[in-house]
Amino acid sequence: MKEQVRTDGAPQAIGPYSQAIKSAGLLFASGQIALDPKTGSIVAGGIVEQTEQVLKNISAVLSAAGTSSEKVVKTTVFLKDMNDFAKMNETYARFFSGSDKIPPARSTVEVARLPKDSLVEIEVVALL
Residue 117: which region, alpha, beta or left (left: phi > 0; alpha: psi -120 to 50)? Predict the structure, then answer.
């Protein structure tokens, strides 16, 4: 059994996919890029600003599903340029770490191109 998750707090799906799916006590969230959900445009700035927007979008999806960043167990980060890793990682760390948080498992890969020429895309799996 699966249940679709939708929120206006993150960009709407623009193809045959869901923002996220709940199934068997888990949330499988589609990759988020640096789109501002209000304007539909990529946010201005570089990797830091784009990573911040991606994490805001993820947070909105997690919230709509009734879960939070503390319950994320796995992430996959797609970077347009691995040279942006350190700056992305600093921004990511603020979202997924702290004295009360256990950071999720993570894979990070460089890709040739991302939708809308975003610099970063992140997908997550979380407990419900």
Answer: left
Q: Give one word for 98, left, alpha or beta, with left for phi > 0 and alpha for psi -120 to 50.
A: left
Tens-place pLDDT, residues 14-55 = 899 999 999 999 999 999 999 999 999 999 999 999 999 999
CATH code: domain of residue 53: 3.30.1330.40
Question: Could you tell me the residue range of the domain that residue 50 belongs to?
Answer: 3-127
Q: What is the pTM of this model?
A: 0.96
pLDDT tens per residue across span 45-98: 999 999 999 999 999 999 999 999 999 999 999 999 999 999 999 999 999 987
- Residue 51 and residue 91 in contact, taking contact as beta carbons nearer than 8 Å: yes
Q: How many domains does the chain have?
A: 1
In angstroms, what CA-CA distances link 76 with 38, 45, 112, 121? 25, 22, 16, 8
Cβ pair 118, 84 in contact under 8 A: no
Separation of alpha carbons 89 and 39, rounded Å: 26
